[in-house]
Every structure is written in C-alpha cells, then in structure tokens.
Amino acid sequence: MSHELEDLLKTFEKKGINRRHFFKLMAAAGLVTAVGIYKAKEFSSNAKGKIVIIGGGAAGISMAARLNDWLDEPDITLIDPSDRHFYQPGFTLIASGVYQPDEVWRKQEDCMPSGIKWIKDSVAAIDPNKNQVATKNNGKIAYDFLVLTPGLQTNWEKVEGITQATLGEGNAHSIYDFEGAQKTWKALQEFSKTGGKAIYTDTYTKHKCGGAPKKICLLTDDYTRKQETRDKADLHYYTASKELYDIPFFTPRLLKIYEERNIPINLNVRVKGVDTAAKQVHFEKIETVGEQKVYTPFIEDYDFLHFTPPMSAPDFVREAGLGWTEGKLAADAWVMVDKETLVHKTYPNIVSLGDVAGIPTSKTSAAVRKQVPIAAKNLISLMEGKEPEEKYDGYAACPIVTDYGHVLLCEFNYKKEPEISFPFNLIDTSKEQRAAWWLKVHILKPMYFYGMLNGFA
Ligand SMILES: Cc1cc2nc3c(=O)[nH]c(=O)nc-3n(C[C@H](O)[C@H](O)[C@H](O)COP(=O)(O)OP(=O)(O)OC[C@H]3O[C@@H](n4cnc5c(N)ncnc54)[C@H](O)[C@@H]3O)c2cc1C
Questions:
Q1: What does 385-418 look like in DSSP terms, one character per residue?
Q2: Ligand 1 — pocket residues by CB below 6 A?
Q3: What is the CATH number of domain 4-152+313-397+436-454?
Q4: How far is the CA of 224 from the centre of ligand 1 (A)?
Q5: Structural domain spans, the chain
Q6: Model pTM?
Q7: Is the pLDDT of residue 196 over 50?
Q8: What is the pLDDT of residues 49-73, one digit of tens each?
C-alpha cells in the first residue's frame, strides 16, 4: 500500500525542505485543522534549571522538543537506551499487513531535538529526595526538575507459559511487541487459509491502547472475509472488564459490530497462562457473589491466539516510591500525579505523562499529544516559582480499526464524554467512518514523526 503523504514528505526532505515546513504543507493541503495540529500558545521563558527527562518515547522526545523551544536557555538531558524510536500505533497495521515493519521506526538519533544532551543509557533508580537519577553505566545524574516518561513495563512473565522471546510458539501471538506484530501477520494469513478457532484477549491491568486487541480481532474477521474463508473461522473475544468498551457514545456501535460479525464477547475473564504445546488458554472467570470475589478456572482450546500481557509502571518507578500508594492505580505503581496538572503530588519538581502516568484515561500517544504542552507549560511555571495552571481534561483517542477501510474514531475525556476533533465533529463518529481510516493509515504517522516529536501538539 502506498502512503502518498509520507512519500511526498520524504521527497521534500531529500530536496532539502526542512521538516518544520511540514505544517505549511499540511496547511496548504487543508489538514492542519483536520488533525488539530498547532503550537499551543507560543511563548518563551528565561526560567533556568537542569531538566532531566527519563525516556525518549512519544512523551519524552515531544517534551524535550517543546521545552527546548520554549526556554531561552534550555539545559536538558534525556536518558534513553534505544537505538530505534518506534511508532507503536503502527504495530496493529503491521500485524494486519497494511504497513511494512520498516515504516514504523526511525533512528533515535534522528528523533532527538538538536541541543539536547542524550545519554544513551537506562535509568536504574531515582532518589527523589536527593534529586538524583542513577543510570546503569553512566553513574549518578543530578537534576533540578525531572520529566518522568519511561512508558510502561510489559510483564510477559505474568502469563504462565509465555516469554517475550518465545512469542509465536504454539501460534500464541501478541502485537504489543515489534517482532510479535510481524509474526502475527504471518500467522493471520495462515489462519485465513486453515481456519479454526481464534481467541483474542485483553488483560486485567491498565494497558496501552485498549483498542488494540479489539482491532486485531476485527481485522482478522475482515481479512478472512476478503479471502472468502470466514465460514471456516470461529472468532471469540475475551475481556477482563465488565464491558467491551466503557465510553457510552461509542459502545453501542462497537457491540453491534461484534454481533453483526458473529464474534461472541466473554466478560470478566482473565488469562492465567497458555499451554502452547497443547494450544490451550487457561482462563479464570471472576464473579462477585455478595461481598466475595469468586474465581472459576476454565480452559479453552485454540488454533490461533492473540493475547495482551499485563502491564505496570517500570520497577524503578515503583522502587523510588513515585507510584500511587492507594486506590486503583496503586497496584501497578502508576505515577502519582495530579490528573489535571500532571505534576507529582509529593515532589513538585517532577512532572510525569504518557503511559507511566497514574491518571484515569487511556494510555495512547493521542493522549500524550495533548498532555505535552500542558506538562511543559506547568514545568516552566514551577521553574519560575509559580503555581502550575494549565489543566489536562483527560483527552485520549483510540481509533478502533473495524475493517480494512473503516475506523471507529473514539475521542473522549475524563468524563468519558466524546471530545471530537474538527472536522470529524461534522460527521457521525458514533459509527465507523472511511475518513477516519484515511486519518489512521495516512496522516497520524507523519503527524507523529514530523509534528509531535518536533514539539507541535
Ligand atoms: C500495539 C499498540 C497499538 C497502539 N495503538 C495506538 C493507537 O492506535 N493510538 C494511539 O494514540 N496510541 C496507540 N498506542 C499507544 C502508544 O504507542 C503509547 O501510548 C505511547 O507510545 C506512550 O508514549 P510514552 O512516551 O509514554 O512511552 P513510549 O513511547 O513507550 O516510550 C518510552 C521510552 O522510555 C524508554 N525507557 C524505558 N525504560 C527506561 C529506563 N529505565 N531508562 C531510560 N529510558 C527508558 C524507552 O526506551 C522508550 O523510548 C499503541 C501501542 C501499542 C503497543
């Protein structure tokens, strides 16, 4: 599949047109408003202080770019061990054959904003009382202000019988991994020939892109239809939640799609383990009887499995005592920030955003896009000795790909109300739309690499 916009941008780049001219091109194409790109409130500050950013993913690089632009004399150190920067929303599209693997990553060095000091290393510990970070190979690094954006930790080993290295064995797959997404695409094509029973699961912890397991399920359905083998495929969706989706504006249509496609939904079920040799999933049904939770184990055979691993904040975040100590977000140590300002509740020189943040919204790069200007502005206020005043309303988006050509564009906020971006508010986004597919496949990735990572919201 050709991605015309990106090809065009690459051609411009080869001709020496600066990446920052992207927005002028987008504007010319009438797309700036379409995707809501803008440099939120241009301003500058002469605030001073040493900023350390942990993690150079969607949130870390975008914060580095934004702070670099806004501070007159930025002093920013970013710590991240990766060679490659992945556009993770593309993993679903690799797993369904829409993207090639090489389309979703760039060299990390090419994503790093100029002027940022990059330490290519992992953080092993944080001492928030001493304002100090310990790295694996570069000793201790002091900070005045910390941006905590290491993303989340994928706990593969919490599914018995599975390791990241053995993904694909016994036809048990997960798109929450770059290699895993590639193996899923091969397996999906094979499954469309052989048919059989396919099982799709999410997990009981908060996980990034809650829509991803649903998307790969619906794409399998559509792919087998296109191959005219759908009658040989028996698809089942299992969720650990009490409902398929919890944003009321979008849920009815999503439920209807599953019904129309003949995919039964099983609620309140979590995966305990996978016997890849026997091709069996070990489940546990969780029911509440009176005050008690009752756990009933059961086993299902499968021919193709897509599972979602449990996720948590990275261990070093938990060990630093930066996670929530009470409430639903405590078990997995999601960072204890104020859900509006994104400033840490105990340590006011720390901001945290992205997947690691303990806030009650979806873990998506769409959410990161809205969090970055708020967290950056608030951090600068703290550096200036002022109160943080910018407020995040919980905006997140999850484009649920419902078939090859349509997307249910779920955009919402903390109140679980729809918060639809222009011009999608002109169409009925309670239903899947072709325009949203075009956005998902052709626009969001260049917008991510050329826009968001360059400090544009
Ligand atoms: C299959 C899949 C589908 C998705 N689909 C969508 C979608 O459709 N729409 C959407 O908006 N979002 C989607 N997402 C979610 C999106 O990719 C994430 O929400 C986003 O990347 C979060 O950004 P982040 O910066 O918090 O974390 P990441 O982008 O994961 O970056 C974390 C960074 O921290 C670094 N790091 C980790 N540990 C350390 C350490 N100890 N020291 C230093 N650095 C460290 C890592 O190397 C990495 O560079 C999807 C994700 C997946 C996996």
A1: T----------EEEEEEEETTEEEEEEE-TT--B
A2: 54-60, 79-82, 88-89, 91-92, 122-123, 149-151, 175-176, 208-209, 212, 314, 316, 354-356, 363-366, 368, 397, 399
A3: 3.50.50.60
A4: 30
A5: 4-152+313-397+436-454, 156-268+301-310
A6: 0.94
A7: yes
A8: 999 999 999 999 999 999 999 999 9
